[in-house]
Design brief:
The structure is a single chain. The chain has about 400 residues and is an alpha+beta fold. The chain has two domains: about 240 residues, 3-Layer(bba) Sandwich (FAD/NAD(P)-binding domain); about 140 residues, Elongation Factor Tu (Ef-tu), domain 3. Helix content is about 30%, strand content about 25%. It has 13 helices and 21 strands. The strands form five sheets. Strands 1, 2, 7, 8, 9, 10 and 20 form a seven-stranded mixed sheet that branches. Strand 8 and strand 9 form a beta hairpin. The radius of gyration is 25 Å and the shape is elongated. The two termini are about 25 Å apart. Bound molecules: dihydroflavine-adenine dinucleotide. InterPro entries: BaiN-like (IPR004792), BaiN-like_dom_sf (IPR023166), FAD/NAD-bd_sf (IPR036188), RsdA/BaiN/AoA(So)-like_dom (IPR055178), RsdA/BaiN/AoA(So)_Rossmann (IPR057661). Its cofactor is FAD.
Length: about 400
């Protein structure tokens, strides 16, 4: 029967990185994936340029039932460590905003770098993974209808997001099989969808982007908001989607840093026969201004005719827009899966299952989910390095 010292399930960001960290002279490392190409999510990440880390990585940039869990791995493998690898590989990069680092060229450069780094490991794509059993101090694993044994099994099969790209719930199934607890999973970093009455505003504005600020359940973000045919998207919405739960209202400021009611009162004070929609268009994108004026029945109205109470209402509509999403676009488009393997059942230094020596879980399948902006890859690298280097 074939034997490996370490079998890694999943050749995504975490699995590929872990293989490179685990290699030692004489050690047999096998990486298995059912996909025909490795690192598919890396390839499409960051709009094809891979936002491979964030220099502002800190544990408060992650959601988890236990926010302290990630700190150990993140402090031992830092963003600068990954930047050093990227530099050594001669990959040009740039900082976009807020510490987000992207490749200047294609994301595939990162995949090539990871494949080079794990040279010496045996990468098997198109592999069908069967049953996993713990037998004595070894594991037995079915692969393509054959059995193989391994001293350690590292599960890096990711979360449920984007099934079309090969996502499955394998990590969660294995965790449950071996008695680990799960934190309920849900789609994160995902567009929000709205009921028909709210879509009356969103739909005609599809494609328009505006800077917005949203504070919700401990998350506070200011970034671009994009109207879509089904609701709202854009970075600020993706960020807040990870904090939002079904049934909750969101309060959105469509003009952060600007008190719309006061600005309108000032414009009114300067006299003139300006229409409300025109006054609004000095403060918001034209189409959004026109749509809100129409929604409020103010298309023909003159600013000079509006009492303070009406301008206060209009200001609140823009600075404190209350809206209740009906849902999210779900795993079909979600960038990440929130929840997952309960960190109480993992060792924070090595990612090893506390009750099952030799079994490890890394990357997105663990209940550690980063904000948008390169944090999820940094978690993949850091958790993978922790497991790969474990003695
Ligand atoms: P990942 O999903 O990368 O890998 C899991 C692997 O396991 C896959 O290769 C899959 O085929 C394999 N697998 C699954 N089930 C299996 C089974 N049953 N049998 C065999 N193999 C199986 N993050 C970031 O930091 N910066 C960014 O720019 C982006 N951009 C981005 C864009 C888009 C569109 C998405 C969907 C996601 C991002 N992300 C991101 C998130 C990032 O891609 C994600 O956090 C990491 O890829 C997670 O790495 P993992 O290795 O844990 O899972």
């Amino acid at each position: 029967m074939e034997h490996a010292d370490i079998v890694i399930l999943g050749a995504g960001a975490a699995g590929l990185f872990c293989a490179g960290s685990a290699l030692r002279p004489g050690r047999r490392v096998v990486v298995l994936d059912h996909a025909t190409r490795p690192g598919e999510k890396i390839r499409i990440s960051g709009g094809g340029r891979c936002n491979f880390t964030n220099m502002a990585t800190a544990r408060d940039r992650f959601l988890s039932q236990n926010p302290r869990f990630a700190a150990s791995a993140l402090s031992r493998y830092r963003p600068q460590d990954f930047v050093d690898l990227v530099d050594r590989a001669g990959i040009a990069w740039h900082e976009k905003t807020q510490g987000q680092l992207f490749c200047d060229g294609k994301a595939t450069q990162i995949i090539d770098m990871l494949l080079n780094r794990m040279r010496g490991a045996d990468l098997r794509l198109g592999a069908q993974i069967g049953a996993l059993r713990h037998s004595g101090d070894r594991f037995e694993l079915g692969v393509d209808g054959q059995m193989m044994t391994a001293d350690r099994v590292i599960v890096a099969t990711g979360g449920k997001s984007i099934p079309k790209m090969g996502a499955t719930g394998l990590a969660y199934d294995l965790a449950q099989q071996f008695g680990l607890r799960l934190v309920e999973t849900r789609a994160g970093l995902v567009p929000l969808t709205f009921a028909e009455q709210d879509l009356a505003l969103c739909r005609p504005l599809a494609g328009i982007s505006v800077e917005a600020q949203i504070t919700h359940q401990g998350g506070r973000f200011r970034d671009a908001l994009l109207f879509t045919h089904r609701g709202l998207s854009g970075p600020v919405i993706l960020q807040i989607s990870s904090f939002w739960r079904a049934g909750e209202f969101l309060t959105i400021d469509l003009a952060p840093g600007r008190n719309i009611a006061e600005a309108l009162k000032q414009q009114r004070g300067q006299g003139g026969r300006m229409a409300v929609a025109t006054a609004l268009s000095h403060l918001l994108p034209d189409r959004l201004a026109a749509a809100i004026a129409a929604e409020q029945g103010l298309t023909e109205a003159r600013l000079a005719d509006q009492p303070n109470t009406r301008l206060d209402e209009l200001g609140a509509r823009i600075n404190r827009w209350q809206i209740r999403p009906v849902g999210t676009e779900g795993y079909r488009t979600a960038e990440v899966t929130l929840g997952g393997i309960d960190t109480r059942d993992l060792d924070a230094k090595t990612m090893q299952a506390r009750q099952v020596p030799g079994l490890y879980f890394i990357g997105e399948c663990v209940d550690v989910t980063g904000w948008l902006g390169g944090y999820n890859f940094q978690w993949a690298w850091a958790s993978a390095d922790a497991a790969g280097r474990a003695d």
